[in-house]
Amino acid sequence: MINLVRRLLKTSQKKPEKLIDEKEIRYDGRKLNEMRPVKIEVGILGNADGSAYIEQGKNRILAAVYGPREIHPKHQALPDRAALRCRYHMAPFSVQERKSPAPSRREVEISKVMREALEPSVFTEYYPRTAIDLFVEVLQADGGTRCAGITVASLALADAGIPMRDLVSACAAGKVEGRVVLDLSDVEDKSSDGADMPVAYMSSLNAVTLLQMDGMLTPDEFEQTLNMAVEGCKQISQLQKEALKAKYATAKEAVAEKEEEAEEEAKE
Ligand code: ADP
């Protein structure tokens, strides 16, 4: 019985026949240049130096940062800067078929790509011979997790108080059924004939820190896709700033309350 329910659930989650209709509306109701709904929270873990959480569509991702701190093993120490070490990991329950908890080749690749996308934003030269450790845990995946992972990791670094040149915002664009679209979900990403281009971008510095591409695009489509992805990154950057401000507004309130309490105690 349980197996039957599971099978029925899976059939209902199968790829729809058409991903984009005649009115250019995508299967999930989005326009071609529309991002999935994004919700971000900063500073949600008590034990890490910095942390953040993102929901982008069905993606749920948590990032935690420790450091700058003493580096172990010592031979990994860099004489002129901090070593930024990233681990991207997908929880076994993050996808429909249970994923092995052991790190896959894909996770090793994404960990490297993430480090390379984030490193240009961090003043690592301020902390030679130390480590900044970054953990990105995908709790639920639905396409575009490397981009959402970079977005949330950059916020966790900022929350840890690590000096940065800019926030890194990431978003993918690509081609689905012949049309250029923003922020592909898993079914869109896996559509045949498609293409996917994850981009990470520092908005204030106008600098791209990651550009990858799967699939085939004409030179015109390439330009259109890149421009759309950068526009997506700019939208994400706004949301990141709002999330950081929201965290500091609560922190400010808490400090003001404590100060008031202290003043009242002093009066008594
Ligand atoms: P991204 O998450 O950045 O789009 P990929 O293009 O490699 O990275 O993966 C696309 C999607 O494929 C993931 O977001 C996830 O939804 C799905 N996926 C990845 N690994 C697995 C896996 N082991 N089992 C099932 N689905 C997976």
Descriptive report:
The chain has 268 residues and is of the alpha+beta class. The chain has one domain: GHMP Kinase, N-terminal domain (Ribosomal Protein S5, domain 2, 2-Layer Sandwich), CATH 3.30.230.70. It contains five helices and ten strands; from the N terminus they run αββββαβαββαβββα. The chain has helices at residues 2-12, 105-118, 145-159, 186-189, 219-267; strands at 38-42, 50-56, 59-70, 83-90, 130-140, 169-176, 179-182, 195-202, 207-211, 214-215. The strands form two sheets. It has a five-stranded mixed β-sheet. A hairpin with a 2-residue loop joins β6 and β7 (179-182). The model has no long low-confidence stretch (mean pLDDT 93). It binds adenosine-5'-diphosphate.
Topology:
Elements: H1 2-12, E1 38-42, E2 50-56, E3 59-70, E4 83-90, H2 105-118, E5 130-140, H3 145-159, E6 169-176, E7 179-182, H4 186-189, E8 195-202, E9 207-211, E10 214-215, H5 219-267
Parallel strand pairs: 4-5
Antiparallel strand pairs: 1-2, 2-3, 3-5, 6-7, 6-8, 8-9, 8-10
Bound molecules: adenosine-5'-diphosphate (ADP).
Adenosine-5'-diphosphate binds at residues 95, 97, 99, 106, 141-146, 186, 189, 198.
Features of the shown structure:
35% helix, Ribosomal Protein S5, domain 2, five-stranded antiparallel beta sheet, binds adenosine-5'-diphosphate, 10 strands, five-stranded mixed beta sheet
